[in-house]
Structure formats: C-alpha cells, structure tokens
C-alpha cells in the first residue's frame, strides 16, 4: 500500500492510497485506523488529552474513471478550505 496524498481535518481525514486489489478496502481502513490510534494514544498517553477513538464507518471509492491528479487536486483543495 502507498499513501499518495492526505489531508487531516478536524472531524475526518482524506486519504488517497494505492493498493493491490487483493487488499479489501475495509481491511485497509481498519488497519490504518488501528495503527494511527495506537501511535496517537501512545504518544499522548501521559497528557490530559482524550484518547482517540475512531468512528466505525468509512468511505472508500475508486479512481477508475478519474485520474489520480484529479483525486489529489480534490484532497489538496479540501486542505486549503480548512
């Protein structure tokens, strides 16, 4: 899997990833959520901040009829709007 682009917003994250078809989007979403929450919670374990807990849902789409440049442009525009 390769993360091509990402934008972190206050209530969600946009990720543009490339992955072989053998990896189901649901498994990728769970994997990314699990690793990121463990790293975040480990880093801020001693602070007063609340531990991160991801929502169960996610959205996954394909870029089959859309160029990767279009998807990256969308993600970058989302970052500029925050």
TrEMBL record:
Gene3D superfamilies: Transposase IS200-like. It comes from the Archaea. InterPro entries: Transposase_17 (IPR002686), Transposase_17_sf (IPR036515). GO terms for molecular function: DNA binding; transposase activity. Residues 1-78 form the Transposase IS200-like domain. GO terms for biological process: DNA transposition. NCBIfam families: transpos_IS200. PANTHER family: TRANSPOSASE FOR INSERTION SEQUENCE ELEMENT IS200. This is Transposase IS200-family protein. It comes from Halococcus thailandensis JCM 13552. The lineage of its organism: Archaea, Methanobacteriati, Methanobacteriota, Stenosarchaea group, Halobacteria.
């Amino acid at each position: 899997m390769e993360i091509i682009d990402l934008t972190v917003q206050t209530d969600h994250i946009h990720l543009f990833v490339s992955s072989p078809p053998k990896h189901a989007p649901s498994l990728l979403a769970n994997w990314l959520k699990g690793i990121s929450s463990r790293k975040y919670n480990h880093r801020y374990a001693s602070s007063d901040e609340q531990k991160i807990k991801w929502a169960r849902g996610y959205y996954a789409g394909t870029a089959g009829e859309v160029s990767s440049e279009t998807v990256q442009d969308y993600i970058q525009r989302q970052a500029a709007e925050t």
